[in-house]
Amino acid sequence: MWGETRFRLFGYSDNGDVVPVLRVDSMDIYGTLDTTSQSFVFQSPRPIDTIQIQFRWVDSLKQATVAQFINDSLLQDSIAKADSLKADSLQKDSALLNGKQDTAKKASIPKNVLQLQGTQPALDSMFQGDCDVMDTACLLREEAKNRDTTVNNKCAELAAKKAGINYEEGEQDPTNNPDDHCFTEPAAVPDSVKKNARPHFTLTGILAENDAPGIIYTNVGINGAKVHDYFEEVCPLFEKEMEYFKPDLVIFAIGINDANVQRFNDKQFREDYDQLIARFKKVNPNVAIIFETNNDMFRKVKRKKFVQHTNGEVARKSFFMLAEKHKAGVWDKFSIMGGLGSMAKWEKADLAKKDKVHFKLSGYNLLGDLFYKALIQAYQEHIANLPAQAKQENKPAAQPTTKNERGNK
């Protein structure tokens, strides 16, 4: 039902030393590099519904070394976990037996793991350091220490502030002022640093296609993102990649993080949306737009203490103002939920999380069904009225009597 045959993977390798490989039926399929769009084009020998992409070093010898290093690293991690389980087991047994018996015999580790207790992961010059090759957060921190970059103090403070925010737990920024629009330009990285850097591949999107008729749907988003995170400073290839989609309809369902602040700058919020919409209209000037108002939410003031967040009502008005300006549609999720304070009812109905900002899977499924029904109903009404509209628009005007009159009309 979802079989795809063509794939365009958008992304790039920092040093050109890593390539994506599509795996189908144990076959390795290498893509064709399209330098114009910085993407790789793959053709599958048969329709597939699951995409498996591996990222490999161009140098096959280095790839083999990395693969062995990863295997050793995972093995060492398994040993560490086994040691941890052993310690936990000994502690529990000691508590149960009150120290009266030797509990060392109670815990056992598989023989194949015990035989490898002294094994050390194979290190090579590409991965010198204290980080496990699988620990990307540690790798990024380590490389940040070695990279020569210039960051102004304001942006550094902003980065530190954002690092302390946990959106899953309902935490919030203190403000949403223009200072948040802070994008830093890293200094030039010397070639010597690039040569010894760990392999990177930045994946920015995947477009899957087939020859079947129907609607192509794609989405983009990440926890904690705000509207301005889709600006050119962060997503420089946005328009180039969007050219391959050329959306007829864009549904904007972002803004909850912009409004989950103590002092909501609604004017800046609308200006950010104007700038984002301009990027889409560069690709398709006639793109249709639907705004989805923010859901109701509560503001966390103390541990386990929440208060109603009135920013939801302010943001709702902004969405309607944007819709009027851009001749767009609005799906008023805020009102559909029940308005201010309704998130508490959704939580009580087991549809929302305790942070009173996010929904549970059942809540998201319900909202998705409601939006789909509203969209289909609006589209059916549009189709039903289309003949009458077309008839009115195509009604012939009175014929002019002279060439000049025709030109005036």
Describe this structure as you would to a colleague.
This protein is an alpha/beta fold and 409 residues long. The chain folds into 3 domains: 4-58; 61-146, no CATH class; 221-393, Rossmann fold (3-Layer(aba) Sandwich), CATH 3.40.50.1110. Helix content is 40%, strand content 18%. The chain has 13 helices and 14 strands. The protein has helices at residues 60-97, 111-114, 136-146, 153-163, 191-196, 238-242, 256-259, 266-283, 311-326, 333-337, 343-348, 361-393, 403-408; strands at residues 4-13, 18-24, 27-30, 32-34, 39-48, 53-57, 173-175, 201-209, 249-252, 261-263, 288-292, 298-302, 305-308, 329-331. Strands 4-5-1-8 form a 4-stranded antiparallel sheet, with no helix packed on it. β2 and β3 (27-30) form a beta hairpin. α8 packs parallel to α9. The longest helix has 38 residues, at 60-97. It is globular, with a radius of gyration of 28 Å. The chain starts with a strand and ends with a helix. Mean pLDDT is 76; it is low at 100-128 and 398-409.
Structural class: alpha/beta
Please give the order of strands in the largest beta sheet. Answer: 4-5-1-8
Shape-level CATH architecture of the largest domain = 3-Layer(aba) Sandwich
Mean pLDDT: 76
Terminal Cα separation, in Å? 52 Å
Tell me the total number of β-strands. Answer: 14
Question: Rough shape?
Answer: globular
Give the helix proportion (percent range): 25-40%
Total number of domains? 3
CATH superfamily of the largest domain: SGNH hydrolase
Please report the first level of CATH classification, the CATH class of the largest domain.
Alpha Beta
What is the CATH third-level topology name of the largest domain?
Answer: Rossmann fold
Give the C-alpha Rg. Answer: 28 Å
Provide the succession of SSEs.
Answer: EEEEEEHHHHEHEHEHEHEEEHEHHHH
In this structure, how is the largest beta sheet organized?
A: 4 strands, antiparallel
Unreliable stretches: 100-128, 398-409
Q: Proportion of β residues?
A: 15-25%
| Count, helices | 13
